[in-house]
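Intended use. Records like the one below are meant for learning the mapping from a protein sequence to its folded structure. Do not use them to infer anything beyond what is encoded.
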Amino acid sequence: MSRGLMHAFRVVVLLIGLSTLACQNSSTIDHVDSMTTVILVRHAEKELEGDDPELTSAGAERALALAHVLGEVNVDAVYATQFARTRNTALPLANLLGVDVTVVMAGQSFAAEMADVVRSQHDGETVVIVSHSNTTPAIIGELGVAPIPTIDDDEYDDMYVVTITSTGLVRLLPLRYGRETA
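Structure written out for the chain above:
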């Protein structure tokens, strides 16, 4: 394990903990019964050709970095779209945690459906969602974050941590993981 990856892991765990603590200690919150944490990433680097392209070697490396960074986080569920690039980005993490990757069909209402799944099935849990450069920001918006971030076509290292308290307070923590892409 490289020192850089270990440092990145420690930073993510620390930031998730600080985000949780900040939400729980906020003077605007009287009582927090639960906190839902949603970690969103775009799929890792993909091949440029084909209807359902696989990950490149850099993408496979990034998928392993995701597993390394989140491997010690108490993740309750991992979601990905039906495409090979999202499933293969999520798979090393899911294998490490001993959970299945739940495949959700991407479509016109995908972002709203994922936000509904988080709210209805994962209250107080930690969920990882691997999707795409257009749907990751859309899910973040559906979870109640404004302004909604954007992900450029050549960006693969964005990681977004959205925390939602039982009182409805929503916070976004933008992070990066793996090697820098742009």
